[in-house]
């Protein structure tokens, strides 16, 4: 989290602030600095782990009983190969069957000596035990550093996913990811050009479409579209003239083979949990999700306790219908009746970059239909009758946020940004 929550320090992902693609993975390297050694981390369908090099080769921590193959140092551009316990092989970066370096899926930085150093190796192939496999193609955006010949990679994005049946040389299914330009490019280190002494990480693109195609002939490009998803975003600007803003995913529309569209999912946001200062746009949180057919989910948030000088302080704001809140210290009311926006003692207050939030209450509303009256589902502590419980289950099913085919999911960290593919 940035040191100052009302300062634009980094982009949102190419999907939108707090969102990412589901199903892809990568090996990520951290640099050695200030006496801390370089580290590598694996994130893929089997989970997330730190990678450790031992006398028996590479292992995960905690132990996950996978087999890992990688040659060279952490900063090398060589591929990573991971075999899960069920025998599925995952390749990150590189080219399958060769030792090519800095190939498809690779992103790197430029070291002080002008040499390349691996930053991310993205998932490029999945091979199951039957011989079926998936290939993922990426595009990178180049960045230059004054005084060095090699370019670094400020951003990388997947463009095509192909599915191959066993012994089939041509893909049977293809997914294309479409992008458009984005305006929030004014990150620190990027002042309108890419000839900088400081490497900055940002993208010129945002994800605007996902198209699913199936093979309908013997040609290399003989595909027909069977469905698509259109993504729309907007910005909450810090400074639009300088390209400083939060990219927010506002809607997802599913379309069929003939281009006909279902009602769009739409999303609404708020700035932080209760009591957060208005200018803290980096604390943007998902507040509402609507399925376009009368079903919706509303999120309410509470502030996570923070520690200051060894003492726990908590900002508390009542939800509608609850008693007035007050500042609390170690779970006790420090000054009865004091509102969260008023200071209590010298050390109480918001600390930029430290405050976090958790979901306090989810409220579902069913879409109109037989057996549903559209009533909101009661929150914590409220009693439900049998009929209410049945309506609640119906509401939750109708208002589900899961869209498996779109493969777009809400990340657990509401402030996570950058072009991270998971």
Write structural notes for this entry.
This protein has about 425 residues and is mainly beta. It is built from one helix and 26 strands. The chain has a 20-stranded mixed β-sheet that branches. The longest helix has 13 residues. It is globular and about 55 Å long. The C terminus is likely disordered.
Helix content: under 10%
Q: Which structural class is indicated by helix and strand composition?
A: mainly beta
Low-pLDDT parts are 307-354, 370-384, 392-422
Strand content: 35-45%
Question: CA-to-CA gap between the ends?
Answer: 19 Å
Task: Count the beta strands.
Answer: 26
Tell me the number of helical segments per DSSP (H or I, 4 or more residues long): 1
Question: What is the fold's blueprint, element by element?
Answer:
Layout: E1 19-21, E2 26-30, E3 39-44, E4 47-54, E5 57-61, E6 67-69, E7 80-83, E8 89-92, E9 106-110, E10 116-127, E11 133-145, E12 152-164, E13 173-181, E14 195-196, E15 205-215, E16 223-239, E17 244-255, E18 265-271, E19 284-290, E20 296-303, E21 306-308, E22 311-314, E23 328-329, E24 332-333, E25 357-365, H1 386-398, E26 408-410
Parallel strand pairs: 11-14
Antiparallel strand pairs: 1-26, 2-3, 2-10, 3-4, 4-5, 6-7, 7-8, 8-10, 9-10, 10-11, 11-12, 12-13, 13-15, 15-16, 16-17, 17-18, 18-19, 19-20, 20-25, 21-22, 22-23, 23-24
């Amino acid at each position: 989290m940035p040191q100052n929550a009302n300062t634009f320090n980094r982009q949102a992902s190419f999907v939108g602030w707090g969102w990412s693609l589901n199903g892809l993975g990568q090996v990520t390297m951290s640099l050695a600095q200030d006496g801390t050694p370089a580290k590598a981390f694996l994130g893929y369908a089997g989970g997330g782990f730190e990678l450790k090099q031992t006398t028996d080769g590479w292992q995960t921590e905690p132990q996950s009983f996978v087999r890992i193959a990688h040659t060279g140092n952490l900063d090398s551009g060589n591929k990573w190969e991971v075999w899960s316990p069920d025998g599925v092989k995952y390749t990150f970066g590189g080219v399958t069957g060769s030792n090519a370096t800095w190939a498809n899926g690779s992103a790197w930085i430029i070291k002080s000596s002008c040499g390349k150093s691996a930053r991310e190796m993205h998932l490029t192939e999945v091979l199951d035990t039957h011989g079926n496999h998936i290939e993922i193609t990426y595009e990178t955006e180049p960045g230059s550093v004054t005084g060095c010949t090699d370019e670094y990679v400020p951003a990388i994005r997947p463009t095509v996913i192909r599915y191959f049946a066993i012994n089939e040389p041509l893909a049977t299914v293809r997914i294309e990811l479409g992008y458009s330009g984005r305006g929030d490019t004014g990150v620190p280190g990027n002042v309108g050009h890419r000839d900088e002494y400081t490497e900055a990480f940002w993208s010129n693109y945002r994800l605007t479409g996902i198209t699913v195609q199936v093979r309908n002939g013997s040609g290399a490009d003989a595909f027909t579209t069977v469905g698509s998803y259109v993504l729309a975003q907007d910005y909450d600007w810090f400074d639009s003239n300088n390209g400083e803003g939060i990219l927010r995913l506002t809607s997802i529309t599913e379309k069929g083979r003939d281009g006909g569209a279902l009602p769009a999912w739409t999303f609404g946001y708020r700035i932080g949990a209760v009591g957060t200062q208005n200018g803290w746009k980096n604390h943007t949180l998902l507040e509402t999700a609507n399925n376009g057919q009368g079903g919706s989910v509303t999120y309410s948030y509470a502030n996570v306790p923070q520690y200051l000088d060894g003492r726990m302080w908590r900002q508390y704001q009542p939800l509608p219908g609850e008693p007035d809140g007050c500042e609390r210290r170690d779970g006790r009311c420090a000054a009865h009746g004091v509102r969260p926006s008023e200071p209590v003692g010298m050390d109480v207050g918001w600390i930029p970059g430290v405050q976090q939030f958790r979901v306090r209450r989810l409220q579902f509303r069913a879409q109109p239909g037989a057996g549903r009256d559209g009533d909101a589902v009661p929150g914590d502590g409220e009693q439900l009758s049998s009929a209410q419980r049945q309506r609640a289950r119906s509401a939750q099913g109708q208002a589900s946020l899961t869209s498996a085919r779109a493969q777009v999911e809400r990340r657990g960290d509401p402030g996570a940004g950058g072009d991270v593919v998971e």
